[in-house]
Design goal:
The structure is a homotetramer of 116-residue chains. Chain A is mainly α and 116 residues long. The mean pLDDT of chain A is 96. The N and C termini of chain A lie far apart (41 Å). Helices cover 72% and strands 0% of the residues of chain A. The longest helix of chain A has 22 residues. In chain A, helix 1 crosses helix 4 and helix 2 packs antiparallel against helix 4. Chains in contact: A-B, A-C, A-D, B-C, B-D, C-D. The interface between A and D is small, with 4 and 5 residues.
């Protein structure tokens, strides 16, 4: 079994043991995905300058691991419930982005593809 | 190579080809992670009731695949840059949640662990 | 002095007494605005159905007052720092939305203006 | 009539003319509040360093005015629907923050009150 499939099985088992599928319609999963993503961002609140940002990245590595795991958990649950193969979706998105951001135009630029 | 490692290599190759690492400090990656998560949520804006929510889940499946892929992409980049093994982080978080939400107390409840 | 101007003076006084302007570049204010908005949303996490939503709206009214105040505080600070008159900006936006969502087309519809 | 009350009347009139109260339960208003707050933040995506941040603040002032107006609009609607006086809520929150962040401890510090 692929790694993503295996991890999905684990979060589904956690959910099923608690009978939580009833709360997990896709809209509420998306809401929780946003809440977890902002918990990642919150760790950087008021941190300015590379020294501070790198400092907090090291000091609070465990918190980042926990919060990124929560984001990943909701991403896996949503993908599962919507019938999306997350690995394939990412590979397809990289292909799209390759077309939107051709290397010769995008290299070293922070512009959106609409402005390239 | 594990699936997550392989996908990480692909997003890193995409980034390196464009020389975008310079823009990707961890704070700005976290900011983009939040923006992508809200793009998932936006698809459900004003959708109410299970019929509408399930309807949009089907009709806009490709949009969800693209937006979840973006969320996954930034999760992989952050984990890579912070030196976090995302698969292990998720397994460790499931263990923590097993302790925070014991099955006999959490089953069928939507309460936070602080209220169980 | 107008009410919004007066409230802006109060939050500026709070900030200046603590010498916090140094942390308040507009990007970091926008980041905090998002964090506070998600704290409003978090109160509704896993609440489904009108009975639950209305229930939490009543039970946690003080929490909503505090979180909306935080959102308003950062909105006032950003508007002030960017030289924006918030009251006029809102009136101008209502005018724009009047044009984007003409009553005869938008009445009773949850569609985006691009789909009307 | 106070300025905030007057602006609230205007956004309520806009809503009532379109019969949109039916879509505006408080949870969905909170969701839209988050989406609008992230649209403010998105303008700063990948902008780094004070020169870039100040530059975009000037160049895209009208976009900021529009997005902050949207945030303010949803804040007013939520406060109205929840029976909250937004001006009083802000003044009460400033009082609370005065106690949480005493000037002698908080001056010049970016720490959370729990760490002061």
């Amino acid at each position: 079994m692929s790694e993503i499939k295996l991890l999905t099985e684990k979060v589904l088992a956690f959910r099923d043991e608690r009978d939580w599928k009833q709360f997990h319609n896709s809209k509420d999963l998306a809401l929780s995905l946003v809440l977890e993503a902002t918990e990642v961002l919150e760790i950087f609140q008021w941190k300015q300058g590379m020294a501070d940002i790198d400092g907090v990245a090291t000091e609070r590595k465990q918190d980042f691991a926990d919060e990124l795991a929560d984001v990943f958990c909701y991403t896996l649950l949503m993908a599962n419930d919507l019938g999306i193969d997350l690995g394939k979706a990412l590979e397809a998105k990289i292909e799209k982005n390759n077309a939107k951001y051709p290397i010769d135009k995008a290299k070293g630029s922070d512009k959106k593809y609409t402005e390239l």
